[in-house]
Amino acid sequence: MAHDATTSQTSSGNTELVRVATSEHRLARYTLIGLALCFVALFLVLPLAAVFREALRNGPGEFLTVLSDPETFAAIELTLLVAVIAVPLNLVFGIAAAWAIAKFEFKGKAFLTTLIDLPFSVSPVISGLVFVLLFGSHSLLGPWLQSHGIQILFAVPGIVLATVFVTFPFVARELIPLMQEQGTSDEEAALSLGASGWQTFWYVTLPNIKWGLLYGVLLCNARAMGEFGAVSVVSGHIRGLTNTMPLQVEILYNEYNFVAAFAVATLLALLALVTLVLKSLLEMKYSAQIAASRRH
Amino acid sequence: MTARTASLWQFRQPSVIPGFGLALGVTLSWLILIILIPLSGLAWRSSALGWSTFWALATDQRTINALRISFGTAFVAALVNVVFGVILAWVLVRYRFPGKRIIDAMVDLPFALPTAVAGIALTTLYAPNGWIGSLLSPLGIKIAFTPIGIVFALVFVGLPFVVRTVQPIMEEIDKEVEEAAATLGANRFQTISRVLLPGLAPAVLTGFALAFARGVGEYGSVIFIAGNLPYISEIAPLLIVIRLEEFNYPAATAIAAVMLIISFAMLLIINMIQAWSRRRYGYGA
Predict the structure, then answer these.
(1) C-alpha of B96 from chain center
(2) Cα A171 from Cα A182, distance rounded (Å)
(3) A95 to chain B nearest CA, in Å?
(4) The complex's ipTM?
(5) In CA terms, which of A131, B50, B124, B152 is 20 to 30 Å from B199?
């Protein structure tokens, strides 16, 4: 701002010189914009358009018919169920982790932060594999689980576990930089005025972080509903029972039932679009509260 | 002096904020239950294989080819993303044009769109009978069902990593640096290539590493477009799935262990780059 003030004091000719000297030739600018737009069109816009076009290839009637298939309906139900369990679990974990890491200084903090980020550097397939190795019939736990009639793999608990593993860092990652930036003075003030720990959290910290929290939950939910690799390994692909929406897309596609595959895919694409719109709105309105918005 | 010695021996610095025990307790138990026990299960199972078995499984020709394809295509895709990601970030930070806001929001699409959906959408576009594939096939260019298709899918999933690491650093660049370069007689190209881009190098490197790491492990978007020919276009995560379906747990474990070791080495390098860039430039990348 100070810099703008000094330039406005100088003559307009000078300002024009500075502008010319620190910006590209018009041709270079248009070329760069053109390149960027082509790239976005080829890799982002056209794939999205293709999903909707393929789904509506035979008209909206068939689109609705394939969506009302009971197997598809079961997949939608399972996807929602998994998200409803996995997201709140990681929400609680995220708040606890951010509270410990952002509000306190302790030994091994950097190491703990690295451990929390681990799932991001593990292939989704490996995230599923570790649960197969843990609970499968060849594992230590497998025979014991079998004799007690507990089904984890190829059932809902396994799908939930794999999803929780994959979405583990989302909320914590969003909250840690935000709460570190906010410091502890608000909480200290509340405590010195006689508030209890829970009151401080509920009435001081939570209002301070609510938009950042919502942002993290949004990203966590998008990943939880859309996870494919990890869930695919543990699900067992039992039709109408353990297929989530992304798995249903794969099965329909591999059966050359393209309209149905893309119809289910449109629902997931709509989920992605809603996520993006909400995310942009949050970024626009509460950018100060979304510290890590630009640093996934 | 006494306070200092005390703090050396203390696990945490004193604070009036309550709830440390509860918060750390919840965090650690959740971390151990969900992440560390399952991952150490993998480590235990691969060490139980014994060194010679492990080595034989890891150096199986099909495994080596799959690893080479995964790491090679992820490397190429990350390079493509560095070039176009930096251009895209530059255009979004510096220029004004209609639809800029929408494009800025669209960059995050790969984070939000489930990978399976991305996979079938890209395949439909780039298959020989698709919108773009049909334009290229008369020229003899095949994208889908070849390793190039894998690169295309990985470019899609990796793009936001580069843009979102470079963009905030670009926004922080002080205009005065450019003005100084211009006054000293540098033309625009020299200012950009010698003054601006070197300052962005740590952020670009971090973005590259993140996109690369993500690409190596990617499964959902790749398997539809790859064609999945063993030795040619079969990625390592798919080979793990194939071995699992054959109930060949030792082979699946060995491939996973090799992938994890390389991934963790990369994570370590990313952290070192970040620490280095923060020391050198005063801001995180």
Answers:
(1) 29
(2) 17
(3) 8
(4) 0.88
(5) B152
